[in-house]
Design goal:
This protein is 40% helix and 0% strand. By secondary structure, the chain is mainly α. It has one domain. Helix 4 crosses helix 5, helix 4 crosses helix 8 and helix 5 packs across helix 9.
Length: 257
């Protein structure tokens, strides 16, 4: 069964509890995915320290993590936000991707080094999709932000074709069905990429946004950490380091220091 099917059953059962327990993801490892330094590069690689002038006025904020840095249309942001919510839905265990501001995390990553593939070798030849060579690393001349552009457009195109609505306007079951088709490459995207490649990038960025330090735009109020009892960035563990029992601590973000 496809991964997204299993994760989204958390709406009806305790899948999310199992996912949180068994994922084995660590915040430090997730940050390597591209968070560091991503807040200061603008769309298409230009240097930028604030949201672009074309960002919708209601998204502008004194908090830079709540302003668009890559997306220029509400529809783009809402599409990614809706897709991320189906990958990591809200349940009785805790908030989902939307409440954790994962959409903003992804927006900021697309504007930065990760989305622009700034520090990666991007010269061919490239292995074809499905090749075992592709497991060795990134295998397309397209940058990640370009893959997201194509993926978002195709999500809405597919939603219009199947339901005559934008992707973010569909109900949860309809959105999940489309995402499963992307994961299983049943949808064709124009360009040197595949629907599954876009889905894999989206899923990775979603999980990163749940667990990364809030200073990068996601993990609002450290909700992702609280679900795992992760302490975040403590100044010291001296008072508890010799204790045998687990000590639950209020998490702290880098910005709190």
């Amino acid at each position: 069964m496809a991964e997204i099917k299993k994760e989204n059953q958390g709406i009806q059962d305790d899948t999310k509890r199992v996912f949180l327990k068994n994922s084995g993801l660590t915040v430090g490892g997730l940050l390597v995915g591209g968070a560091l330094g991503s807040l200061f590069l603008g769309k298409k690689g230009g240097t930028q320290t604030a949201a672009p002038a074309t960002a919708p006025a209601h998204e502008m904020s004194s908090n830079p993590t709540k302003a668009y840095m890559y997306f220029t249309k509400d529809e783009e942001f809402k599409t990614i936000e809706a897709a991320a919510e189906q990958i990591f839905p809200e349940t009785e265990i805790g908030p989902g991707a939307k409440a954790l501001d994962v959409g903003y995390y992804i927006d900021h990553q697309l504007a930065g080094n990760w989305g622009q593939n700034t520090k990666e070798y991007m010269v061919g030849p490239f292995a074809p999709a499905g090749s075992t060579i592709a497991e060795e690393g990134y295998q397309t001349h397209l940058k990640r932000h370009e893959i997201f552009d194509l993926g978002i457009a195709e999500l809405n195109k597919t939603a219009q074709k199947n339901h005559e609505k934008q992707f973010f306007e569909l109900d949860a079951e309809q959105q999940i069905a489309i995402l499963v088709d992307f994961e299983e490459d049943k949808v064709k995207i124009n360009g040197a990429t595949t629907a599954s490649q876009f889905f894999d990038l989206l899923r990775t960025a979603t999980i990163e946004g749940v667990y990364a330090d809030p200073m990068y735009g996601g993990n609002k109020d450290m909700g992702g950490w609280k679900m795992k009892n992760f302490p975040g960035h403590q100044m010291s563990y001296l008072s508890i380091i010799e204790k045998d029992e687990f000590v639950k601590m209020e998490p702290h973000s880098l910005s709190s220091h």
